[in-house]
Design goal:
The protein has a domain of 222 residues. The chain is built from 22 helices and 3 strands. A 3-stranded mixed sheet has the order 1-2-3. A hairpin with a 4-residue loop joins strand 2 and strand 3. Helix 4 runs antiparallel to helix 5. The chain is globular and about 75 Å long.
């Protein structure tokens, strides 16, 4: 497989990685009152760069654009190598947007304010690096680097059981990373002994022809690392605990960005590197995807804690990404990528909504809520739009990705498509129940609660500015999906080229 490269005139991707790191270093020497404005400015600059690149990207043909490569350890074939195709670019853009929103939202942090923003800035640099790195050493460095700041964000600024949740998050993801490392090292060694070449570049390793049995082994090694990060059933148990205990901005980044690293790994590495193994494991991946969709949707339906409902819904939505990816056709792959983008928007907005409710009502339990809509109409409207996008209402972003993922699945297996489609009804059930039990049932709450809700404020400026871009983009993708499909279509074809060509 050959690749075309379009070198960057200005190293925008390197700048996007270095800016948050430099800002985090500067903050060490400044008063904490500068932490939030500096973080917002830096993340806004990164987001502007990513948005400009999104519109400047030439999707008429497949090539790696804004490409940079600098030799690091030539004896081992290791280089700093970054660039984007449509998959990398959309994930980089989603990451930049998510961090900007998180910084704007974070107005009520009182404990170790400076350290809080430093942790998020380091995390932003690591997350961007994961999505734009094409050298496997740097990919793994960024992949591991994000563990420490996320561990601290949950463990220091989380709720009562934050240490347990942070430790569980770290152990699960670090365990998966070890298998990922074993797979990469194994492929690297195989390349050397069979081709006499040392290289950790994605573009060299993708052309390593493996025997079928080795493909199966390497596929399983990488798949375990990615499955835990997604997380797929049955590796999902760390996620509800992490979400429940994380601060609002931490939950936003977990859902909108970190979960996408796992699905990104399947799309970027598993399918194009191991095409025959991908075909072989289609029934397994479909089964795990459908179990995730149905089981975690049922679990969400049984929850009364708002953040647990949203956490289980995230696992369920990632099941659609799994189905679309391993349908191994263009419709499914396009659906998987658009679902990743859409879920990033909707999950971020849902966790913002949960955070807003907690700040006003001081509870995440549905039984303590109800009847708020009349008193906070702007928030109630934004929350409703987000809920509708999450359940896949036509005209909003969730519909586009799930429709394409199901279409791709239907071409391969009518049974799995029908099962996943039925689970959408359960998804609508728990999402509408969540909205109903928090915003409506005014006639079932007492006068004291009505009085309490009448005293709370609607969205503050920072909260409104955090919600607004997410809401707009839900409509933009839902009403005019053609641009997004055109953007990613050639990338999907390139990812599937070895599968379709075989």
């Amino acid at each position: 497989m050959t690749f075309q490269f379009e070198p960057a005139n200005i190293p925008w991707l390197t700048i996007s990685i270095l800016l948050p790191l430099i800002a985090s270093g500067i903050l060490f020497f400044l008063n904490e009152r500068f932490a939030k404005p500096i973080s917002i400015i830096v993340s806004a600059v990164v987001f502007v760069i990513s948005t400009w690149m999104l519109f400047a990207y030439d999707f008429s043909e497949y090539k790696i654009q804004f490409y940079e490569k600098y030799t690091w350890i030539p004896q081992l074939g290791v280089s700093y190598e970054v660039g984007v195709d449509a998959l990398s670019l959309t994930m980089y853009w989603l990451t930049a947007l998510s961090f900007l929103i998180s910084f704007i939202w974070s107005t009520n942090i009182k404990k170790r304010v400076k350290e809080y923003f430093i942790a998020f800035l380091v995390l932003e640099a690591a997350c961007i690096g994961v999505f734009v790195a094409w050298d496997l050493v740097f990919f793994y460095i960024f992949w591991e680097a994000m563990l420490i700041p996320m561990f601290l964000i949950i463990g220091v600024w989380g709720y009562a059981e934050r240490i347990y949740a942070a430790t569980k998050f770290f152990i699960y993801t670090f365990f998966g990373s070890l298998f990922l490392l074993l797979g990469v090292i194994g492929l690297y060694v195989y390349q050397y002994f069979h081709y006499g070449k040392l290289s950790t570049s994605y573009f060299d390793l993708i052309n390593v022809g493996l025997p079928f049995n080795l493909e199966l082994i390497f596929f399983l090694l990488l798949a375990l690392g990615f499955a835990i990060k997604v997380p797929m059933w049955p590796f999902h148990t760390w996620l509800p605990a992490a979400h429940v205990q994380a601060p609002t901005a931490g939950s936003v980044i977990l859902a909108a960005v970190l979960l996408k690293m796992g699905t990104y790994g399947f799309v970027r590495f598993s399918v194009p590197w191991f095409p025959e193994a991908s075909k072989y494991f289609v029934p397994v991946m479909f089964t795990l995807g459908v179990i995730a969709i149905i089981y975690t949707a049922a679990m969400a339906l049984a929850q009364t804690h708002i953040k647990r409902v949203i956490a289980y819904s995230s696992v369920s939505h990632m099941g659609f990404v799994t189905l679309g990816t391993f349908a191994l056709n263009v419709e499914g792959m396009n659906g998987a990528i658009i679902t990743m983008i859409s879920h990033g928007l909707t999950s971020a907005a849902l966790f913002l909504a949960a955070g807003w409710i907690y700040e006003r009502a001081h509870s995440y339990e549905m039984r303590d809520l109800g009847g708020m809509a009349r008193f906070v109409p702007v928030f109630a409207t934004f929350f409703m739009i987000t809920a509708m996008a999450s359940v896949g209402l036509p005209g909003l972003s969730g519909f586009v990705g799930e429709f394409l993922a199901l279409l791709g699945t239907f071409e391969v297996s009518i049974l799995f498509a029908v099962l996943a489609g039925i689970a959408l009804v359960v998804g609508a059930g728990y999402t509408l129940r969540l909205y109903h039990n928090t915003m409506f049932i005014e006639n079932e709450i007492d006068e004291n609660k009505k009085h309490k809700w009448s005293q709370i404020s609607d969205l503050k400026t920072s909260e409104f500015l955090s919600f607004l871009p997410l809401i707009i983009l839900m409509f933009v993708i839902g009403i005019y999906p053609k641009w997004w499909v055109d953007l990613i279509n050639n990338t999907s074809l390139a990812i599937l080229s070895k599968v379709l060509g075989g």
